[in-house]
Write a structure and sequence with these properties.
This protein has six helices and no strands. By secondary structure, it is mainly α. It has one domain: Arc Repressor Mutant, subunit A (Orthogonal Bundle), CATH 1.10.10.10.
């Protein structure tokens, strides 16, 4: 089961760019284009970094590198969104 503690431990291991993109999306609620403007990167790069962050948070780094995502993206985002609004 995916827990906030597990996500937190994996989050600490994220490289700076995917971590920043994830925070801007799920804590600040910014859309991809706005994140791209803020960070000076293309919207496509924002989506790729967000996907990379989600894979690492769902599996951990080794599994993410293999391109596997066993946890439903909606579940992962729900945990992140609950943190953002203080429900978790």
């Amino acid at each position: 089961m995916l827990t906030q503690a597990l996500i937190g431990a994996r989050f600490d291991g994220l490289p700076a760019l995917p971590r920043t993109v994830f925070l801007l999306r799920h804590l600040n609620g910014l859309e991809g284009a706005a994140i791209g403007v803020r960070l000076g990167i293309a919207a496509e790069d924002v989506e790729r970094e967000l996907a990379d962050a989600l894979r690492v948070l769902a599996w951990g780094s080794a599994e993410a590198e293999a391109g596997v995502m066993p946890v439903d993206r909606a579940e992962l985002c729900a945990v992140a969104d609950a943190e953002r609004v203080g429900e978790g």
